[in-house]
Amino acid sequence: MAAAPVEMIISRTFRYMRSVITPLVSGIVVLLIGLSLIKVGIVSCGGGFAAMDNGTFGSVENIGVAAAVLLSVLFFNRCRNKYLRMSSIVLGLCVGYALSFALGMVDLSAASSQSLLGFNIPVPFKYGLDFNISSFIAIGLVYLITAIEATGDVTANSMISGKSIEGAGYLKRVSGGVLADGVNSFLSGAFNSFPNSIFAQNNGIIQLTGVASRYAGYYIVGMLILLGLFPIVGVVFSLMPDPVLGGATLLMFGTVAAAGIRIIAAQEINRKATLVLAVSLSLGLGVELMPDILKTAPEAIKGIFSSGIMTGGLTAILANVLIRVKEDKTE
């Protein structure tokens, strides 16, 4: 809660950074978000980290369930019936859940010790309050990373929704999104939960369903608040095998990366843009693919640059400002 204002303050600076956070920079961040998350989706498709520990990672059952979810989502998304098309993600998850249940992959014993009845009323500050300066600094850096990720997510959201990704209107949306992220994280702390961040998969859902109305979001928020009062709902989702979720999220992560490519492709790729792209993607993906490169670095450096999104995003911002290239003019 103490570090949440870091993100709120950052959100108020975007109006002064029009020449720094350009569509090219935002497109690079969106692309890095999608590419980074694809690894998460692949891990889930193989069975998750638990499967890595017990030796079942990448088994035929795990890959088969993930493939069934992926193909189901694609099938329903191509239907002419708009209700089937808009429900493609949910229907794909249902197919995968049913298949994994039939294969005995759903561990019902995990829910035996949890209360399935009654209500779950959140109690603010249930665990009390404490302040630690080292924790504050660490979480403050996390909020900085989250702000950069949120900028890319809102940019992708704007483009997919048919909105501009330049000008005062775009900067207002980005500032509002990052501010809301900070405020919601503050409220999460008050209600004993972790900080939250804008979810990149939602851009994939918009692209797959074609629904970008924020008014639909209002109804969803109300529904989630009500469902959160019933512990059984949480149990149902916690029992969902990783391959089920992986098959759906893998497709959504891919659409996020595709949105980043579309944003970049819409810009003029001159010599400067090529250099900005090259250095940003090289460093961002390099850290993501080989995290051990920072193994001997100080903890403060690891905290900032262990995220490929943060590394690539900061590099894109700095490179866009510092690189000066004189374009050759030909007659």
What does this structure look like?
This protein has 331 residues and is mostly helical. It has 15 helices and no strands. Helix 7 packs across helix 8. It is globular. The N and C termini lie far apart (59 Å).
Biggest β-sheet, characterized? Answer: none
Measured on Cα atoms, how large is the radius of gyration? 21 Å
Number of extended strands: 0
Helix fraction, binned, reads 55-70%
- Average pLDDT, to the nearest integer? 85
Coarse morphology: globular
SSE string: HHHHHHHHHHHHHHH
Which structural class should the secondary elements be placed in?
mainly alpha
Terminal residue distance = 59 Å
Number of helices: 15
Uncertain residue segments: none
Please report which band the strand proportion falls in: under 5%, 5-15%, 15-25%, 25-35%, 35-45% or over 45%.
Answer: under 5%
List the helices and strands and how they pair.
Blueprint: H1 4-11, H2 23-45, H3 48-54, H4 60-77, H5 82-86, H6 88-102, H7 133-160, H8 167-190, H9 201-209, H10 214-227, H11 231-238, H12 242-265, H13 271-289, H14 299-305, H15 308-322
Task: Give the structure's gist in a few sentences.
The chain is an all-alpha fold. The protein has helices at 4-11, 23-45, 48-54, 60-77, 82-86, 88-102, 133-160, 167-190, 201-209, 214-227, 231-238, 242-265, 271-289, 299-305, 308-322. The mean pLDDT is 85.
